[in-house]
Design a protein that fits this description.
- There is one protein chain.
- The chain is mostly helical.
- The protein has one domain.
- It is about 55% helix and about 0% strand.
- It is built from four helices and no strands.
- The N and C termini lie far apart (about 35 Å).
- The relative contact order is 0.14.
């Protein structure tokens, strides 16, 4: 994998994290209309529940939720959230 491929993938992750929303559950559209809460705004405790259960959703949604969880656990989210605007 080339450096360009890595950068392209990182850019896509970054863009997806900036706009992806929770499509179900207590932070989904039923409770946060019209589209659900942004994944990056999900509380750490909620993400930690998925991590403890080993139950992140399959596919891209689960990947993005894991990324947000990791950023929040490491504390890096606090350093980068201004890129998207404070939440």
């Amino acid at each position: 994998m080339s450096t360009d491929d890595l950068l392209s993938g990182a850019r896509k992750d970054w863009d997806d994290l900036g706009r992806a929303r929770m499509p179900f559950g207590k932070y989904g559209p039923d409770h946060f209309p019209p589209e659900g809460l942004l994944l990056r705004e999900l509380p750490l405790e909620y993400l930690a529940w998925f991590a403890r259960k080993g139950a992140f959703p399959k596919g891209r949604l689960g990947q993005l939720m894991q990324m947000v969880h990791q950023m929040k656990v490491e504390g890096s989210y606090e350093l980068i959230r201004d890129h998207w605007g404070r939440s």
